[in-house]
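User: Round two. Same drill as before: sequence, then structure, for each protein.

Assistant: Same drill it is. First protein:
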Amino acid sequence: MEEIYDDVQTLSSKSSKIQEGPRRFLRASVLGLGLLSVFLLAGLIGLAVHYHDVTEERDRLKASLTEKTSELLRLQCLMDKSEWYHMGGFA
């Protein structure tokens, strides 16, 4: 009778070892996917910060360009008035 129970214990230990393989694979898969998710999230945050910085710089450059353009137009207007004055337009 004891021999039967010995066989049962041997079978149960073998089945637990067989089930351990898929569990390891599942744990490794979950760990890998979790790490991948963390890295993707970090990448998205990094891109968002970079995009914000680029947008601020673009706005600053646009304001500077607008300022320089208005200054150029003002100087061209002054130059046109000066030419008109020297050509005898002023009576």
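Second protein:
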Amino acid sequence: MIEDNERWTLDLLRKLIERDEYEKRDTRLFHAFQELNDRLHQKEVVIGQHGEELPINQSQTREINKLAALLDKKEMMLQSQKKRISDFESREKQMSNKIHALKYELQEKNKAIQIANDEILMGQIQLNLLTEKAEKLTRENENLVTRWMERVKLEADQMNEVNEFLKQKST
């Protein structure tokens, strides 16, 4: 939102500067026309390029024609510059949209990477828990086997003692 606001402000300032420059260029033309108009009303005579005296009206007409041609040339240049500005603005908008799309794509990829990392971490935690449980069960199994072997040995010893006792008694 701030970026759009700043862009809008910068565009407005740029357009105001362009307008001021355009008006400054035309100010000379307006002054020239005003001067010609003043001369027209004074009915002065102007010396032409070849030394002939020309009524101010013909001279003014010639200057007006020159200025009109210059004005047309400047207007064509201005149109060309406006076209270039429009092309640059269009290109800037395309690039801005592409940057926005790439930023969005990058955010989505970062989210996918984060999800994958979370799943890997969860898998490692589960593996650690299962490894601990397997080790605990192995220890319990070994403990039970040891206790069972001791009990079987004790029973075997007791049976041997009973058999010894019975052998001794029968003899």
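The longest strand covers residues 45-47.

User: Perfect.
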